[in-house]
Structure formats: C-alpha cells, structure tokens
Amino acid sequence: MAALQFYDAVISGNLRSVIEVAARHKFDLNDFFRDFRERDHQGKCPLHVAALKGYRDMVRYLIDSGCDVNKQTATLRRTPLHFAVNGRRMDCFRALIAANAELNLVDTFGYPALHYAAEHGLTDMLDILISKGAEIDIQDITMKTALMKAVRSLKTQSVKKLLKAACKVNVQNQHGDTALHFASRMGACEMIRLLIESGAEPNVENNWGQTPLMEAVNYNRSEAVKRLVDLGCDVNTRNQSKGEIALHAAMRKNHTAIVRILLEAGSRADILNHQGVSPAFEIAAHNYVDTLKVLIKLNYDLDTPGRTSGPAGPLQVTETLYQIASRAGHLEICGLLAQYNCDSFWIRDGNVAHEQYTSVTKPMSWLNVSGPLQSCCRKSIRKVLGRNIFTSVKELPLPKSIQDFVCAGELCLD
C-alpha cells in the first residue's frame, strides 16, 4: 500500500508527499517502482517519470538526493535524459545536463538522446547536446545516424545544425542508404541541396543498387529528380546489380514527367541493362502512350532496339519497339510509331517465322501505313537535328508551321 502511495505521489508531481512517504517507509529514491498502476511504468524509477512529465523541482530534489542521473530503465534501457528529450522538458533537460548526465548512453534501439532531439526537431536541445560534446555520428542498431533520422522526419533545422557541426554525410545504414537516399525518397529538395553542398556523394548505391536519383524516381518525386539533376547527379549512371539507369525505373513506372526531366538532362534511352532491355521497352510492352509521346517530342530514335537477347553476333536476336508493341496488341503505340515513320516496322529478315511475321504486320494493315513522303522528310530532318531539336529547328529557314510540324507540334503533352 505504501509503495502505491509513493508511486501516486511521483506520478501526480506531489513533491511534498514524495518526501514524506519516502522518509516514513525508508524507500530508496533510486529504486524502480515496487508497485504501479500503469504497466508502462514497470522498470522505471522516480527520476525517469519526473523527467518525462516535466516535474522540474522533483528532478532537482531527486538529483540532490543522490539519484543516479544515468540510471537506465529495465527494458528499453532509457535514461532520464532520454525521457526529458522525448517529453520535450527543457527545464528537466538542463537540470540533468548540469548534473553531468552521460550524453552518449544509448537505449535498446541504439538511440542516444541526440538522436531523439534531431528526429523530433528539438533544435534548442540539439544545440546544447552538440555544445556539450555529444557524439553526433553514433549509429543505432540499424546503423542509422542522427542526420538520417532528421532527414527522414523532414526536420530541416536539425539537418542544418548537424551539418554545421560537421557530421559525416556519407555514412551508410544496414541497407546501404545514406542521408541523401532518405532525402531523395522523401522528395526533400532543400535537404538534397544542403547535403550535396556539404559533400554528400550523389551517385552512391545502396544494397539494392539504387542511387539517390533512382530512389527519387521510384517514389515519383519529380521536383527532387530535377534538383538532383541540377546539382550534378549523373543521369546515365548504371547500377551494378541490374545495369540500369534511372530512366529504366521512370519508364517502367510510367512516370511521364520524370521521363521528360531525365531525357532533357541527357539521359540515354538506348542503354541496355544486363538482360538486354532498354528503358523504352517498358513503353512498348505496357502501352504507355503518353510517355511515348514524350520520346517523340524529344526526338528519341524510335528505331533503337527495345530488347536484345543471345550472344553478340549473327545469333543475337533484336526486337524493335514496334515488334514488341505489335506482339502485345498495343495498336495505339504501333500507330504512333508508324505515324512518325520509324523504319523498324518493316520486315527485312528473311528468317522471320510466319507467326512472328503475322503478329508484326497485322497492326500495319489495320493502320493502313503507307509511309507518306512528308513523314519521311520529317524523319530525315529530325535525325539531323538530334536531341537539340527545339533549338536547332529555329536556325532553319523554314516557316513557323513547318518548324512546328518537324517538332511534332500536333502531339499534346499533359
């Protein structure tokens, strides 16, 4: 009964009752509660609860009475300092710091107090911890740092504080992620800038072969993709695991806006991965009409192979975008390819099987493709102009209407 009375006095913040009951029953103020009403308080002592609830006077009394400021809870191994930070109790936090609380003790998850301060955006506490010499690059049990947690929680001010304190920006967690991976995944453009300007490696791969740029693509973060490109990420970096570039993922996921950003930044849609598949294969295979229109507008070579298989040489099999789309029955894709006069829908291989020939030519008969002269002329001009078509066409002595035709002005992009 007395133990529960003592517990109630601590929980309610009644310092006078705490002193009286402890003296009457000779309770050790540093012991874990003998009795409690909330299961969560099992394995905690009065200083843990007082720090969490912000009972400043009780914290000071317990410290003055000789309580261990570094005592860890029985289960999660948290100290009073952890509780003061998580409870956002600045007065209690300062009292514990003044009592020389150990700054770098970690809980069961490997978090020191500084991790919680950074993750919650508690910049005043973060300033004090850094100024008192807290280690800023401690990694938790999953090898995450305070910087990663601040980025993941979108706490920009915490990120700035840690960068100013010269934290390590290229540390990797157990999955190979850096802070820049987290920023890219979250679409945090300002953090991306801060990290790269502080020396973050823009093209590092995680354990799955994903660069920060690829992560931004995977999560459809178009603004983050643009920021990464503007800050110097290599759009044609191939990952080691699959041999893919960011454009493979953008086209696979049909992120049309990102496809355009990458192509305008010089990404090559003809790069084959380790399976011999180009980024454009996804367009033809999955009927991504709007993304194909982007390729046409940006003057992508529609005759580039979509997929190759087999060893290099005469035995290698090459499939064009038209063949891939026609085999899948994507007639609108076939129509666009034919309209913009890609050569590769014409059958030149005498060894093509009858079934393959039929699958390729059937859409052609449906489209009644005849290869009009104006389309042939447009294609010839576009090939000469290349990827800088919008700039180069203005230098030609052509009427505006013909310039628009050359640039496929009739294609409307959302």
Automatic annotation (TrEMBL):
<dbReference type="Pfam" id="PF07525">
    <property type="entry name" value="SOCS_box"/>
</dbReference>
<feature type="repeat" description="ANK">
    <location>
        <begin position="242"/>
        <end position="274"/>
    </location>
</feature>
<dbReference type="InterPro" id="IPR051165">
    <property type="entry name" value="Multifunctional_ANK_Repeat"/>
</dbReference>
<keyword id="KW-0040">ANK repeat</keyword>
<feature type="repeat" description="ANK">
    <location>
        <begin position="109"/>
        <end position="141"/>
    </location>
</feature>
<dbReference type="InterPro" id="IPR036036">
    <property type="entry name" value="SOCS_box-like_dom_sf"/>
</dbReference>
<feature type="domain" description="SOCS box">
    <location>
        <begin position="372"/>
        <end position="406"/>
    </location>
</feature>
<feature type="repeat" description="ANK">
    <location>
        <begin position="76"/>
        <end position="108"/>
    </location>
</feature>
<feature type="repeat" description="ANK">
    <location>
        <begin position="42"/>
        <end position="74"/>
    </location>
</feature>
<feature type="repeat" description="ANK">
    <location>
        <begin position="208"/>
        <end position="240"/>
    </location>
</feature>
<feature type="repeat" description="ANK">
    <location>
        <begin position="175"/>
        <end position="207"/>
    </location>
</feature>
<dbReference type="InterPro" id="IPR036770">
    <property type="entry name" value="Ankyrin_rpt-contain_sf"/>
</dbReference>
<keyword id="KW-0677">Repeat</keyword>
<dbReference type="Pfam" id="PF00023">
    <property type="entry name" value="Ank"/>
</dbReference>
<dbReference type="Pfam" id="PF12796">
    <property type="entry name" value="Ank_2"/>
</dbReference>
<protein>
    <submittedName>
        <fullName>Ankyrin repeat domain-containing protein 6</fullName>
    </submittedName>
</protein>
<dbReference type="InterPro" id="IPR002110">
    <property type="entry name" value="Ankyrin_rpt"/>
</dbReference>
<dbReference type="InterPro" id="IPR001496">
    <property type="entry name" value="SOCS_box"/>
</dbReference>
<dbReference type="GO" id="GO:0035556">
    <property type="term" value="P:intracellular signal transduction"/>
</dbReference>
